[in-house]
UniProtKB/TrEMBL annotation:
Sections of the chain in a coiled coil: none
SMART domains according to UniProt: WD40
PANTHER family assigned: AMELOGENIN, FUNGAL STAND N-TERMINAL GOODBYE DOMAIN-CONTAINING PROTEIN-RELATED
Record's keyword annotation contains Repeat: yes
WD repeats mapped onto the chain: 1132-1166
InterPro entries associated with the record: NPHP3-like_N, P-loop_NTPase, WD40/YVTN_repeat-like_dom_sf, WD40_repeat_dom_sf, WD40_rpt
Domain Nephrocystin 3-like N-terminal positions: 308-457
Keyword line: Repeat, WD repeat
Protein name as annotated: Nephrocystin 3-like N-terminal domain-containing protein
Species, as recorded: Rhodocollybia butyracea
Pfam families cross-referenced by the UniProt entry: NPHP3_N, WD40
Length: 1239
C-alpha cells in the first residue's frame, strides 16, 4: 500500500490518496509498459483526480524471493505482447491473466493429463521402442504434479503448459489408439521425450533456487522457455495429425550468461580425448528387454531435486555376461536422445586398446563431452585452461577433476539430470591408475551440482567395489539366478539375433522349446547367448560353416557347457580340478605359462596378442586350453577382444599359493617370456614411416585419417610392445639379463627412431623418457647403457618435436643431433650455418664480365653468362654451377664467338640465359638468335633467329623469366622496344614507342620483364622510365625526361614479385614507383634509399617483396627492409670486382652476385633465429617451431641452437614437405654419401 500526503509546514500533513497493488502485478505492468506506470490514486475527497507515476527498477535485487517475483512478472507480461498469429496451443500459453479462474480447475486439467499419460504408458507397453520414454514421461509428470500441487501460487502460466500437453494426449480417447501409436512411432517417441523435458522444467520451475540461479544468469532465456515448449508441442501435434515428418529436436532449456561470447574462439582440441569411447546404439538392450532394471535406474536418475538418497553415484554390478554393458549402452542412448547425456565412457572397444590403457584421458574426455553438450560449460572450461598449456596436459587426476569438471560445472544452470555413464571399468589395464581415478571421483563427486548422475558398472566381486560404500553410492546387483524376467529377455534376444541373420525357412526350424534350451545353455549370461547365436548363424569365426544352422545348434546344445564360476575359492578350485581331470597333466604346465603371461601383462591381452607376445604363437593347443577356461575367463575364443576374468578375484586367487595350491601361478617367471616377445615384435615390425605419412608440414593432430592409419599399420601387439617392453625388461632376473642384451642393443641401435614414431602417433612419448630412465638402472652391458643414455638425451631434448609430428623426429631431431652416428640407419640433411654471417664462397668463371645470373626452379643450380670484349673477336660463355656443392662446376654448357664488326653488343644485358619453369631446359640469347639447350647435355634443342630480315642488330635485350619472349632494341627501331616470340623468332608486340623531349632522343639504358611477364619496364639515358602492359602493348606509365629525383641516368629497374611496384636506381638513390594499371593518373613515387655513397649499380628484391638487396662499392652485400628503410644486415665478401649482375633464389635462401672479372659470389643467407627482421620467412614463436607462410611446420629448434641459426636452407632441401622421406639414406648409398651434421 502506498499513501500520498501533502506536507504542510505549519499544520498536520494531509492525506491526498492511496494506491494498493501486489508486487508481482506491479512488476508485470512495469515490464509491459516500458517500466513506467501511471495509476490513479484512491482519493479521500471529491477533488480533482490525482495520478501517481511509478517506475520499476530491479537492479541489484539478488534475493531468491525477488528473483522469483521478477521472473513470474516478466513471463506474465510477455503473454500480453504475444503475436496474434500464433497457433492455438501456443496462444493458450501466451493468454492474459484470468484464463484460469480457479486453482481447482487448473488442478483438474493436470489430473486429466495424468490419466491420459497413464493410458499412453500402458498402451506403449506393447511397443518396445516407445515404452521407456512413455514410462519416463508419466513418472516425471507425476512428480511435477506433486510439486505444482504444493506450490500452486507460483504461477498460473504452468497450467497453460499443462493444458497444452493435455490437448496433445487426446488421441488416447480416440478409436484404436494403439494402432495410431504404432503407426507414428517416431512422433510418439518425440512427444514422450518432450513431455519428460517439460516435467524436468516444471519441477525445477517450482523451486526458488531455480529462479535465483536463472535470474543471476539471464532472465530472458527463461522468459520464453514455456512458450518454446508450447510451440514444440504444437509442431508435434501437427506432425501427428498430418502424418508429417518431425525433424525438430526436442526443446531443452539452457541458461547462458549474457556476456560477449559470440566472438570468443574456443579451441579444446589440445585437451586429450579418448577416441572411440562413446556408447554404441548397436550394443543397446533389445527393445522390450531389461525393462525392470532400466526403469529402476531411470527412476533414480530422474528423481527431481536430487535423488531420494542424495547420492550422485549409481553402481551396477553383476556377473560376467549378465548384460551390464548392454544396460549401460541403453542408458547412454536414452539420455542422449533427451540431450541429457554428459558423457559416456566404454572401455570394451577392441579397436581402441589405447583407451583401455590410458586412464589419464578419462576426465578430459568427460570434460570435452560436457563442453559439447552445453555452450556455457564450454566457455567456462576454455576460460580455465586457455592460457595454461601445462594444465591442459596434466595427468594428475585430482587437478583434472577439479579444473576440467567441477569448476566449469558451477556455471551450469540446467533443469533436469546430466548423466555420465562409465562402463567396463575392469578393462582398464593399470590397476594403480584405476584406483587413483576412482578415489578422486568418489572423494569429490559431491562437489558437482546436485543434478549430476554418474552410473558405473563393475563385476560382482571386483576389487573396484571397495571404493564404493552404501553411504556414497546407490548399489544395485543384477540377480545371479535366472528369473522369469531374465528368461523372457534371453529368449527375446535369441529370437531377434537368429531372425535377423537366418533365412526365413531356416528360422522356422527353431521353435519355442529350442529357444528354451538356448536359454538354459546360456546359464543366464547374455554374452553367452550372443556367442551361441553367432555360432548358430555362422558369424562366429570358429563356427563350422560345413554344417547347417540347425546342425550347429544341435552340436552347441550337446556340448558340455558349465555356468560361470562365482567368486569363491572352493568353486575356483573345483572348476580347475575338473578341467585338470579332463585335460591331463600337460594342462597344468601350459595353464601356468599362459596365465602367467596374462597376469604379468600391463593390459588385458587378446588371444592374438597373447600368441604374438608369448612362445605359443605356433601352439594350436593354446586355444583349446583357453576354451576350457570359459567358465572362468571371458573372450577366450575371440581373437581381438581382451581376455579378462569373469570375476577379478580369480586373478587374486591364482597369485596366492595358500589359496590356489597346485594351480598357483608364479608371475615373476613369465617376465622374461614377455620381454622376449616384446623385443621380437619390435625388431620384426618397426620400420621407417610406419604410418605412411605423406607430408612433414602437418602436426599429428591435423592428420584427419591418423586413427585409421594407426589401426591399419600398427598391430595390437606392436602397440603393446612399444609401450611396455622396458617395464617387462627391468623385471627380468639378473641371471637372464645377458641373454636379452643383444636384442636390446639391436633394437636401440637400429629401431630407436622407429619406436619413437609409434609412441608419437599413440600420444604417449613420455613413456620413452620414463622407460629409458629405468633402463639406465638395468644391469646390462656397457654398450647397451651407452645407447640408452644417448637415446634418453635425444628424447628429452626433442620431446616437443617428437610429440607434435612424426616426420620431425628426423627433420628436427636427427638433423640437429650431434650423436646421430651412434644409431642406424643413416639420415642426411643440407648443411646449416650457425654463424651470424652467411656462408660465403666464390666461383671463378672464364675471362670476361658476368652478364646475367639465374637460379634453377629447385634452387640447386645457378646459370651464369659471361662475355669478354674482343679485340677482333670475343667470347660469350654459358656456365652451369652446382650450388649444393661449393667446390665444383657441373659443366660449361656452351661458348660463342662474337664478331666485332657485325655482332658486337652494346651493354652487358644483351647476352643472357634463363631456366624453363620445369628446370629441364635453358633458353639463351646470343647475338641475333635464341637457342634452347638441354640442361643435362648442353645439346641444342631449338634455335630461332630474331627478326625476319638479315642485317638486324640487337643493341639491348632481356629475356622473360620463363624464356618464352625477348624484349629488344635494335638498329632498325630507333627509340622503340620490340617483343619477340623466342620459339618462332617473330615479332609479338611492338614497336613500343619511347618519346623524349630531347632533340636527339634517348638511348635505352636497361629493360626488365616483371616476374610473371605481364609488364615490361625500361629506362633511358635521360632518366626517363616507361612501363607497358607486355600482353597488349598498352602504355601503363611514362616519364619521358629526368624527374625531380635525379638528373642521372637510371641504371637499374626491378619489379616487385607481385607486379605492383617498380624499384629504380638513379644516382646514389633507390626509388619505388607504384601505379594503377586501370588509371594512369594514379601513381606514386617515394624514395627507399637516399644518397647512399656506396650504392653500386645493381639491385634485387626478395621473393616476398619486403627486402631490397644491393651490392655496394665497398664489396659488401646490403639487405634493407624497404618498408622501414632500416638495414637488416650486411654480408661481406672476398671479391673487390664491380658487380654486373645480381640474383636471389626463388626460396630466398641464396644470393648470387656476378662481377666484371668473371667471378660469382654466393651467400647462404643467415639471420638470428626469431629475429625481428627475419629474412624472407614468416618468423617464429617462443615454442621453437619455425613455420612457413601457410603455417606449415618447417622445423623445431632446441633453445641452445636458436641464436644465429640459418634455418632457411632447410626449406630448399629434399627432406621437407611431401619429400621428407628423402632424409633416409639407403644402405646402398651409405658408403658413397656423407652425412653433414651441425656441431
Amino acid at each position: 500500500m502506498i499513501e500520498v500526503f501533502k506536507h504542510h509546514r505549519f499544520h498536520a500533513d494531509e492525506l491526498v490518496g492511496s494506491y494498493g497493488e501486489e508486487i508481482e502485478n506491479l512488476l508485470m505492468k512495469g515490464f509491459s509498459r516500458s517500466k513506467s506506470i501511471m495509476q490513479p490514486l484512491h482519493c479521500t475527497s471529491n477533488k480533482m483526480a490525482v495520478h501517481i507515476e511509478l517506475k520499476v527498477d530491479v537492479e541489484g535485487q539478488n534475493s531468491a524471493a525477488m528473483a522469483a517475483a521478477v521472473q513470474r512478472a516478466k513471463i506474465r507480461a510477455s503473454r500480453l505482447h504475444s503475436p496474434n498469429s500464433a497457433s492455438t496451443a501456443v496462444s493458450m500459453i501466451q493468454a492474459a491473466d484470468g484464463v484460469y479462474s480457479s486453482t481447482e480447475n487448473a488442478l483438474g486439467n493436470f489430473v486429466l493429463l495424468l490419466e491420459k499419460l497413464q493410458v499412453f504408458a500402458n498402451l506403449a507397453n506393447s511397443v518396445a521402442e516407445i515404452h521407456p520414454y512413455a514410462d519416463a514421461a508419466y513418472s516425471i509428470i507425476s512428480v511435477a504434479y506433486k510439486a505444482v500441487l504444493a506450490q500452486m501460487q507460483r504461477d498460473e502460466n504452468i497450467i497453460a503448459l499443462i493444458d497444452t500437453m493435455d490437448d496433445i494426449y487426446n488421441f488416447v480417447k480416440e478409436a484404436e489408439p494403439l494402432r495410431q501409436i504404432e503407426s507414428h512411432k517416431k512422433v510418439m517417441i518425440r512427444i514422450a521425450q518432450q513431455t519428460t523435458e517439460c516435467g524436468y522444467f516444471i519441477s525445477a520451475y517450482c523451486s526458488d533456487s531455480f529462479f535465483a540461479r536463472t535470474i543471476k544468469h539471464s532472465v530472458s532465456t527463461t522468459d520464453v522457455a514455456i512458450i518454446n515448449y508450447g510451440k514444440m508441442f504444437s509442431e508435434l501435434k501437427t506432425a501427428l495429425l498430418d502424418h508429417g515428418a518431425i525433424i525438430t529436436e526436442i526443446t531443452v532449456l539452457r541458461i547462458l550468461e549474457t556476456v560477449e561470447r559470440i566472438e570468443t574462439k574456443v579451441d579444446l582440441s589440445d585437451l586429450p580425448y579418448a577416441d572411440g569411447a562413446r556408447f554404441h546404439d548397436s550394443k543397446r538392450c533389445l527393445p522390450g528387454t531389461r525393462e525392470s532394471v532400466l526403469s529402476k535406474i531411470i527412476g533414480w536418475i530422474d528423481a527431481p531435486g536430487g535423488t531420494p538418497d542424495g547420492k550422485r553415484l549409481f553402481l551396477l554390478t553383476g556377473a560376467a555376461g549378465a548384460g551390464k554393458s548392454a544396460i549401460a549402452h541403453s542408458l547412454a542412448g536414452h539420455y542422449n536422445a533427451l540431450r541429457r547425456l554428459g558423457s559416456s565412457i566404454f572401455a570394451d572397444n577392441p579397436d581402441k586398446p589405447l583407451a583401455r590403457s590410458r586412464l589419464v584421458l578419462l576426465f578430459p574426455t568427460i570434460a570435452r563431452d560436457l563442453a559439447d553438450l552445453d555452450p556455457q560449460y564450454r566457455h567456462t572450461l576454455w576460460s580455465v585452461i586457455k592460457s595454461d598449456r601445462a594444465l591442459r596436459k596434466t595427468d594428475d587426476f585430482t587437478t583434472q577433476f577439479k579444473k576440467f569438471i567441477i569448476e566449469p560445472s558451477k556455471s551450469l544452470v540446467i533443469c533436469g539430470p546430466i548423466v555420465i555413464v562409465i562402463d567396463a571399468s575392469e578393462e582398464y589395464s593399470n590397476p594403480q591408475a584405476l584406483n587413483q581415478f576412482l578415489s578422486v571421483l568418489v572423494q569429490h563427486v559431491n562437489d558437482l551440482p546436485s543434478n549430476f548422475r554418474i552410473v558405473i558398472t563393475a563385476l560382482t566381486g571386483s576389487r573396484l567395489l571397495r571404493h564404493f560404500s552404501e553411504t556414497m553410492a546407490q548399489i544395485y546387483q543384477l540377480p545371479n539366478n535366472i528369473g522369469r524376467s531374465e528368461r523372457l529377455d534371453l529368449s527375446q534376444l535369441s529370437k531377434s539375433r537368429l531372425q535377423s541373420s537366418l533365412a526365413r525357412e531356416q528360422f522356422k526350424q527353431f521353435g519355442y522349446s529350442m529357444a528354451s534350451k538356448l536359454v538354459q545353455h546360456s546359464h543366464g549370461s547374455f554374452q553367452r547367448m550372443v556367442e551361441a547365436c553367432d555360432t548358430i548363424c555362422g558369424t562366429d569365426p570358429k563356427a563350422d560353416l560345413q554344417l547347417t544352422p540347425f546342425e550347429r545348434y544341435k552340436v552347441l546344445i550337446s556340448s558340455n557347457s558349465r555356468p560361470p564360476v562365482q567368486p569363491d575359492d572352493n568353486l575356483y578350485m573345483q572348476e580347475l580340478t575338473v578341467i585338470y581331470t579332463e585335460q591331463g597333466a600337460l594342462f597344468t604346465a601350459q595353464f601356468k605359462s599362459v596365465m602367467g603371461i596374462l597376469l604379468a601383462a600391463h593390459t588385458s591381452l587378446s588371444l592374438l596378442e597373447l600368441k604374438q607376445l608369448s612362445n605359443h604363437s605356433e601352439d594350436g593347443d593354446i586355444g583349446i586350453m583357453l576354451g576350457a577356461l570359459g567358465a572362468l575367463l571371458q573372450n577366450t575364443t575371440d581373437f581381438h577382444a581382451p581376455i579378462i576374468p569373469i570375476n577379478s578375484s580369480f586373478y587374486d586367487f591364482l597369485q596366492n599359493p595358500a589359496r590356489s595350491g597346485q594351480f598357483f601361478v608364479d608371475v615373476s617367471s613369465q617376465y622374461i617370456s614377455l620381454a622376449k616377445g616384446c623385443l621380437r615384435v619390435l625388431n620384426d615390425q618397426l620400420c621407417f614411416n610406419i604410418c605412411h605419412l605423406a607430408s612433414s608440414y602437418l602436426p599429428n593432430t591435423e592428420i584427419n585419417d591418423l586413427p585409421d592409419r594407426i589401426k591399419k599399420y600398427i598391430t595390437p601387439e606392436l602397440s603393446y610392445a612399444s609401450q611396455y617392453w622396458i617395464h617387462h625388461l627391468v623385471m627380468v632376473p639378473s641371471a637372464a639379463v645377458k641373454t636379452l642384451a643383444p636384442q636390446v642393443e639391436k633394437l636401440l641401435q637400429t629401431r630407436f627412431f622407429f619406436w619413437l614414431e609409434v609412441l608419437s602417433v599413440l600420444g604417449c612419448v613420455e613413456i620413452a623418457v620414463e622407460g629409458l630412465q629405468e633402463l639406465l638402472l638395468w644391469e646390462s652391458a656397457e654398450s647397451v647403457l651407452n645407447l640408452a643414455h644417448a637415446a634418453l638425451i635425444f628424447v628429452q631434448t626433442f620431446e616437443s618435436a617428437i610429440t607434435s609430428s612424426v616426420p620431425h623426429i628426423y627433420l628436427s631431431g636427427v638433423r640437429f643431433w650431434p650423436n646421430q652416428k651412434l644409431f642406424q640407419p643413416r639420415f642426411a640433411f643440407l648443411p646449416i650455418s650457425r654463424s651470424q654471417n652467411a656462408q660465403f664462397f666464390e666461383r671463378q668463371s672464364w675471362q670476361g664480365s658476368i652478364t646475367s645470373l639465374a637460379f634453377s626452379p629447385d634452387c640447386k643450380s645457378l646459370l651464369s653468362t659471361s662475355s669478354s670484349p674482343p679485340p677482333t673477336t670475343g667470347t660469350f660463355t654459358l656456365s652451369l654451377w652446382d650450388i649444393s656443392d661449393n667446390t665444383r662446376t657441373r659443366m660449361a654448357l656452351a661458348k660463342y664467338e662474337i664478331n666485332r664488326d657485325s655482332d658486337y653488343i652494346l651493354g652487358n644485358h644483351a647476352c643472357s640465359g634463363v631456366f624453363s619453369p620445369d628446370g629441364k631446359t635453358i633458353t639463351v640469347f646470343v647475338p641475333s638468335k635464341v637457342q634452347v639447350l638441354d640442361v643435362q647435355t648442353g645439346k641444342i634443342l631449338h634455335e630461332s633467329d630474331i627478326g625476319e630480315e638479315g642485317g638486324l642488330r640487337v643493341t639491348r635485350a632481356v629475356l622473360q623469366a620463363d624464356g618464352k619472349r625477348l624484349a629488344a632494341t635494335t638498329n632498325r627501331a630507333y627509340n622503340s622496344v620490340l617483343i619477340y616470340n623466342t620459339r618462332s623468332g617473330k615479332l609479338d608486340i611492338g614497336p613500343l614507342k619511347i618519346k623524349s623531349n630531347w632533340k636527339w632522343g634517348a638511348d635505352v639504358s636497361c629493360m626488365e620483364f616483371s616476374s610473371l611477364g605481364n609488364f615490361l619496364a625500361c629506362s633511358t639515358s635521360n632518366s626517363g622510365i616507361w612501363i607497358w602492359n607486355a600482353n597488349t602493348g598498352e602504355e601503363v606509365f611514362a616519364s619521358p625526361d629526368h624527374t625531380e629525383y635525379s638528373i642521372s641516368m637510371t641504371r637499374e629497374v626491378v619489379f616487385s614479385p607481385d607486379e605492383t611496384a617498380l624499384f629504380f636506381m638513379q644516382g646514389n638513390s633507390v626509388h619505388i614507383l607504384r601505379w594503377n594499371a586501370q588509371c594512369q593518373n594514379e601513381q606514386s613515387v617515394h624514395t627507399v634509399l637516399s644518397t647512399v655513397p656506396s650504392l653500386g649499380n645493381r639491385i634485387a628484391v626478395s621473393p616476398a617483396g619486403r627486402y631490397l638487396v644491393y651490392y655496394g662499392l665497398d664489396s659488401t652485400l646490403h639487405i634493407v627492409d624497404h618498408k622501414t628503410n632500416l638495414i637488416s644486415t650486411t654480408l661481406a665478401s672476398g671479391s673487390h670486382s664491380r658487380v654486373t649482375s645480381l640474383a636471389i633464389s626463388s626460396d630466398g635462401t641464396t644470393i648470387a652476385a656476378g662481377g666484371d672479372h668473371g667471378s660469382v659470389s654466393v651467400w647462404q643467407v643467415s639471420m638470428p633465429f626469431g629475429g625481428f627482421y627475419s629474412l624472407w620467412g614468416k618468423g617464429n614463436d617462443d615454442s621453437g617451431w619455425i613455420y612457413g607462410s601457410n603455417n606449415e611446420l618447417l622445423a623445431w629448434v632446441p633453445p641452445e641452437l636458436r641464436e644465429g641459426l640459418n634455418w632457411n636452407p632447410m626449406v630448399s632441401g629434399d627432406a621437407h614437405g611431401t619429400s621428407w622421406v628423402n632424409c633416409l639414406v639407403e644402405e646402398a648409398q651409405e658408403t658413397t654419401k656423407e652425412t653433414t651434421t651441425v656441431s
